[in-house]
Specification:
It is built from 3 helices and 8 strands. By secondary structure, it is α+β, with helices and mostly antiparallel strands. It holds the Pfam family Polyketide_cyc2.
């Protein structure tokens, strides 16, 4: 199954279509790929990857608040979330672990995101950042393999949609930061 979705942001410094697709799906897993053109430099985008609380939609977190997310963009770093509880007790969840960090070029994590965490799967989430036009192109791919009780083909489009939303948030914040720096 393949689909192309155009996402637009009103007032964006650079109009560019987003690409979102389930690129493969079988009983063994799936792969999705999303990409956007961002009117910001690679350093800004990479720095923001380490600040998911600014661009990740809190509706797609365990606590309901993106402010509880953190990501250390170094090998072994955690994409984790604090889970505030009663009486000041704090739990936590590990969404993924950084397995490759190449500043301003690539960040790769290993982990089963969201409902996949309860399945017997491995997921590899990669953010590739490359110069393009007056900014960068960010390609986010997520490859998942293993046993998924509800079926990989069934959940792949949902995962694709959720990840496309997160990438759009990264684009929005990166462009806001870049515009603020340049006074646009």
């Amino acid at each position: 199954m393949r689909k192309i979705v155009a996402l637009g942001w009103a007032g964006a410094a650079m109009a560019a279509p987003a690409h979102s697709a389930v690129t493969a799906s079988s009983d063994a897993g799936f792969a999705v790929e999303n990409s956007v053109q961002v009117a910001a430099d690679a350093a800004t985008v990479y720095r923001l990857l380490g600040q998911p609380g600014r661009w990740w939609n809190g509706a797609h977190s365990y606590s309901g608040s993106a402010a509880n997310l953190r990501l250390e963009p170094v090998a072994g770093g955690c994409f984790c979330e604090a889970l505030p509880g009663e009486e000041g007790r704090v739990g936590s969840v590990e969404h993924a672990r950084v397995i490759h960090a190449a500043p301003d070029r690539q960040l790769r994590l290993s982990g089963a995101l969201g409902p996949l965490q309860a399945e017997a799967v491995t997921g590899t989430l990669t953010f590739d950042i490359a110069p393009s036009g007056k900014g960068v192109r960010v390609v986010m791919s997520y490859v998942v393999g293993g046993y998924i009780r509800m079926g990989a083909a069934r959940i792949a489009p949902v995962v694709d949609k959720v990840l496309a939303e997160q990438l759009a948030g990264l684009k929005r914040v990166a462009e806001q930061d870049a515009a603020g720096r340049t006074g646009l």
